[in-house]
Amino acid sequence: MSKLTAEQIAQHAYDAGFRGENLTTAVAVAMAESGGNTKSHNDTPPDDSYGLWQINMLGDMGPARRKEFGLDSNKDLFDPAENAKAAYEIAGDGKDFGPWSTYTNGAYKKHLDEAEKAARKAGQGSGGGSGGGQGGGTGGGQGGGFSANPEALRKYAERAESIADALEGIGKRTVNSVTGIAKDSFGKVGAETGFSDALGNFSKGLEKQVRTTGSNARKLGEGATDAAKTYQEIDERSAAELKRIMG
């Protein structure tokens, strides 16, 4: 199916890293840009824009963005997951929608109500949402409740961030070392047979996989940080309310 619902768009945006009001805005912008059509393509200059968020790949932007986003082809942006990741990066980690004309001219606003409803449901299909499952969580109480340890979540977030940084470094070192091997070890023969290029392309593909894994680790860490903050606020509000009741 090439046309997605607002809820499906919201889930892709959520998976890419958009959160809170920015998630709502991202969904509204996508609906204004493409109407939810994952195969939408505007090739009228100054545009060569693809997919849900109409990622512009015109001219020199094409090669630069393919490299930045780890894409083999502009058509990879017809994949809503890849398009959402690119949109998240272009939006400065999901916070700045200035690059989209439908945001600056206000066209996205007519989709905000629908986008907000969809954004509330995002993440629930992958274990998010309110309420724990029966017996869920550590130290769960009777009746299917659960308890949360904000400090443990914060430590998890720090660990995930360090893993992401390590993977990013590994990816860069791998592509540089393998590309160097191809040039230094095979010389003219490697260049003429195409083996050097093939080995270089393999290393870049490997770097993309490592970078994606690192990005996912970083998003897990961000999610843990958000959860820790939420649970901490709930604990503080509960304590304040109990103190008020107890006089």
Automatic annotation (TrEMBL):
Xref: Pfam families: SLT_3, T7SS_ESX_EspC
Domain Transglycosylase SLT as annotated: residue spans: 10-102
Domain of life: Bacteria
Residue ranges, compositional bias (Gly residues): 124-146
InterPro entries, per the entry: EspC, Lysozyme-like_dom_sf, SLT_3
Xref: SUPFAM superfamilies: Lysozyme-like
Chain residue ranges for the region called Disordered: 115-149
GO biological process, one term: protein secretion
Signal sequence, start to end: none
Protein name as it appears in the record: Excreted virulence factor EspC, type VII ESX diderm
The species this protein was found in: Saccharopolyspora kobensis
